[in-house]
Write a structure and sequence with these properties.
The structure is a homodimer.
Chain A (H helix, E strand, L loop, with lengths): L3 E12 L15 E11 L2 E7 L9 E12 L1 E3 L11 H8 L4 H6 L4 H10 L2 H17 L2 E7 L6 H14 L6 E8 L9 H18 L5 E5 L7 H13 L4 E5 L7 H7 L4 E4 L5 H8 L4 E4 L1 H7 L6 H6 L4 E3 L13 H12 L3 H8 L1 H5 L17 E4 L6 H4 L6 E6 L2 E2 L3
Parallel strand pairs in A: 1-4, 5-6, 6-7, 7-8, 8-9, 9-10, 10-11, 11-12
Antiparallel strand pairs in A: 1-2, 2-3, 4-13, 13-14, 14-15
Chain lengths: ~400, ~400
């Protein structure tokens, strides 16, 4: 015998009208219902509509007394597993040190790799758990977490094990991605490392069920588009979808390679130009904005407005990491996409919900419609736009994941 | 018989080394003590030093087990009392509407004035209380709140009454400022309004003890520097210190007028140039940065780096208001000053503590030294720099105001 919980007193319900990815102008079209109700059975939404139209049985009623409700968020891009800190780099940068100078002083990403390599799996999980909890408190019910701070296959597998262990610490759905991040510093070592990645690491991560996707960092100082295509082939052989970090500092052909190979998403895009925007405008590959990097490093913002105008499917995430985006709120990432990337509030909501879920291959969350997971946020305000307008504090009063209310 | 509470287990204590304003290069000099202790008697700090040097009596010990401690923050610039919302303007701006078009459509600041004028004092206080609570949760122990959304002296006095009533809702120290914000739209009405402000409103607010300072909005579409000087004279006659909003969109001589008349602070400064920077570099008038406006509206950032290099006393605040800075965290304002205004982490800490307090005329908070109020923050991290590095979530675990721990 199933129990129906009816959520009432919803001043305003706002949601993408359908699950799955929405592109271009459709990103701004929300379904909006005043004085709405939502019927939940188990982990799923059974019915959504105007309160007065509900005629079913109600076993339990939750009266929100005039608050807005939106879908829970998805954070499609985080590096939440790391050890050590980057405070010294943070200080040095404000004193004018260049990225290269920081690296030369033993700082930068390679210092995070050293600290992460030295940490036990249990330590990595313990360090990551409060970061994930902060993202959940900010409204995320589904969170992607990448490996990538290892310099050898064993270290990468340990990071993936730490991500798997995170599941015991949170009600949020954790999606693990194997990130092929930095190549060996010595050019001569790269071919062997690439072979190990493709022939050992990817198949082993897939075999153990530790990765749901493979991501490649395509950049001048990292992997070339050709390297990425080699890695993509190994990922496909292992049955894993592909993603990539592209155009963060330089547009070197990453978008074209990813679109040609059917990547699930391309993330960053700060240096994307006309060609990349046009490619993404007619592709099913999702363009993921990471505005925390723009705020923290002061680099150019990705052309979110132009991507949407070109017809692209745009998502947004935190990129939570210690070096380039210490942004511990998925809601703030959405709010920043309006300020820094030119999205409208409605487009930002779609980018942080339906499209962010689609960037992880999900269409069961991110829209409040019958049949979806009951992942939803109750806002403190009666107007849904507070979810995108509010800076510096949480506009969220209550959070439900798969029908269960979280204790905040 | 007094009771001594000893806070121990402080991995790192970081504070401006003295209370009161600090200028230029001195803003970057912090007193830092590892394995520190703080002795609190009543509302005040009795002693600060390395744990092992404490030889006094300890009646009660609070062991932080390895967390960093910094002074509690001061928010020297908020407009926390308002009614209505500006969501429609927020949406319109992302769709390219100009400030003028928003005003013409009945939006903009005058819509906030209409809504605030229609609200009862008790309503205004009830609306403002959770906003102040958010600032306190973000680390602020002293908070300035301005009137300014009234269009007549009565409405301004009602806002000041609402601010006074806020004191019953929070342990934070609330400092009320009478803001002479927008002049009448009709130019012909301005002289009479200016006279009413100087001859009725300011003396009455002072007589009733409702204002601790007078602020003027100096801008092309608002008051001229000459108007401001007239208002300053009335404020001085009433015994109130003066402040001003200057150079937000246009530098029209506000800084020079304020410095010449001994203003406590000049706030905004986004359009300040060489002349204004030089004036503030050798003045005791505090230069208050409001980076939330830069983030929300996308306007130029105030030249924080150049002001400090010129020797100015720089403070930072949220400017919390519905139209141009919906930033509900004093800690995030400090964090944004690093990203947007070019401050170092140490300079930002000084700007958000000792200098922010000085911008309200206080030297009893903002530095952890014997004799100061026991206003302090316990961070979740062992490194004080987390207080400035963290974006999107609170790095603060515990907050003490005047020796009392707040329940968060």
């Amino acid at each position: 015998m199933t129990t129906t919980t009816l959520i009432t007193g919803i001043s305003q319900l706002a949601t993408p009208p359908t699950p799955g990815p929405r592109r271009g102008a459709a990103m701004g079209d929300l379904l909006q219902i005043d004085d709405a109700a939502i019927a939940i059975v188990g982990a799923s939404i059974d019915w959504v509509g105007p309160r007065q139209e509900w005629t079913g049985r109600t076993d339990r009623e939750i009266d929100l007394q005039g608050r807005a409700v939106i879908p829970a968020l998805t954070d499609p891009h985080t590096h939440a597993v790391w050890a050590g800190d980057r405070y010294r780099d943070f200080e040095a940068r404000t004193q004018g040190a260049s990225y290269e100078a920081i690296l030369a002083a033993g700082g930068g990403i390679r210092s995070t790799v050293r600290a992460t390599a030295d940490a036990a799996v249990t330590t990595l999980t313990a360090l990551a758990a409060p970061r994930v909890a902060a993202l959940v408190a900010s409204g995320a019910a589904t969170i992607e977490v990448k490996s990538g701070y290892g310099f050898d296959p064993d270290a990468e597998l340990r990071s993936l094990e730490a991500i798997a262990a995170l599941r015991a610490t949170t009600a949020a759905r954790i999606m693990p991605t194997l990130l092929i991040h930095l190549p060996p510093e010595n050019l001569a070592d790269r071919p062997a490392y690439l072979r190990a990645v493709c022939e050992e690491l990817i198949p082993e991560a897939a075999r153990q069920g530790l990765a749901a996707a493979v991501d490649v960092f395509i950049e001048r100082e990292a992997w070339s588009p050709d390297d990425a295509v080699t890695i993509f082939a190994a990922a496909k052989m292992a049955g894993l979808p592909i993603k990539a970090h592209v155009d963060q500092f330089h547009a070197i052909g990453g978008v074209a390679a990813c679109v040609a190979h059917g990547a699930l998403s391309v993330d960053h895009l700060e240096a994307s130009g006309d060609l990349e925007i046009a490619l993404l405008g007619s592709s099913d590959t999702i363009a993921t904005l990471l505005p925390g990097v723009t705020l923290h490093l002061g680099i150019t913002a990705a052309p979110g407005r132009r991507l949407i105008d070109a017809g692209a499917i745009v998502a947004v995430g935190t990129d939570l990491n210690p070096g380039s985006s210490p942004l511990f709120s998925t809601q703030q990432a959405m709010a920043l996409a309006v300020r820094l990337n030119g999205l409208s509030p409605a487009e930002a909501l779609t980018a942080g919900t339906a499209n962010a879920a689609a960037a992880l291959g999900f269409n069961d969350t991110g829209a409040l419609i019958a049949g979806s997971r009951a992942d939803l946020l109750v806002l403190a305000d009666q107007d849904w736009r507070s979810a995108v307008w509010t800076l510096g504090a949480s506009p969220i009063e209550r959070l439900f994941i798969a029908g269960q209310e979280m204790q905040q």
